[in-house]
């Protein structure tokens, strides 16, 4: 029964990587910990779970870092970067449409308060939007890395 619950948590967590409102990496990690705990940590040990926890934590840094790096490269102001971050969080309140519009709108508004140049504001918004989607793609990859690390340890231990 614990394994079934663990699988459900991982599946919901994988969906949560892209669906707003679900803490995807946390759910994946919780499912993997539950699966490891279900057999007394004999197949997957604490060391592996620590590595998976580090990967899970990294997924939360990815969104902001990728967006900020892309915006900085295009010369956006710090206000635009802060606006994009705030827009992303505000967008969570409006579901999937908010996640599409939030980073863009936040960056545009932040850039407009700093330079009042519509062209630069549009570029900052586009950079935030592209950064958000690149960050999401990297998060999906890291989610599968978490599962792969777990499965590699689980299957290797099973052969011993």
User: Which H/E pattern describes the elements?
Assistant: HHHHHH
Helix content: over 70%
Low-confidence parts: none
Sheet with the most strands?
A: none
- Total number of helices: 6
Mean pLDDT: 88
Tally the structural domains. 1
Categorize the overall geometry. Answer: elongated
Q: What percent of residues are in strands?
A: under 5%
SS-derived structural category: mainly alpha
Number of strand segments? 0
Oligomeric composition of the shown chains: single chain
Cα-based radius of gyration, to the nearest Å: 19 Å
SSE order and pairing:
Layout: H1 2-16, H2 24-38, H3 46-73, H4 78-91, H5 95-115, H6 118-159
Helix pairs in contact: 1-2, 2-3, 2-6, 3-4, 3-6, 4-5, 4-6, 5-6
Explain how this protein is built.
The structure is a single chain. The chain is an all-alpha fold. It contains 6 helices and no strands. The longest helix is centred in the last third of the chain and has 42 residues. The chain starts with a helix and ends with a helix. 38% of the residues are buried.
């Amino acid at each position: 029964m614990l394994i079934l619950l663990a699988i459900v948590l991982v599946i919901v967590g994988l969906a949560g990587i892209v669906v707003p409102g679900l803490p995807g990496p946390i759910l994946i990690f919780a499912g993997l910990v539950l699966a490891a705990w279900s057999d007394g940590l004999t197949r997957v040990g604490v060391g592996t779970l620590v590595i998976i926890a580090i990967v899970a934590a990294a997924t939360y840094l990815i969104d902001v870092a990728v967006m900020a790096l892309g915006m900085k490269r295009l010369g956006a102001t710090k206000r635009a970067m802060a606006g994009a971050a705030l827009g992303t969080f505000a967008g969570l309140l409006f579901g999937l449409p908010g996640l599409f519009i939030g980073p863009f709108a936040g960056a545009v508004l932040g850039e407009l308060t700093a330079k009042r140049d519509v062209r630069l504001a549009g570029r900052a918004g586009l950079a935030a939007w592209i950064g958000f989607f690149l960050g999401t793609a990297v998060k999906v990859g890291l989610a599968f890395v978490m599962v792969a690390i777990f499965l590699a340890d689980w299957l290797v231990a099973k052969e011993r």
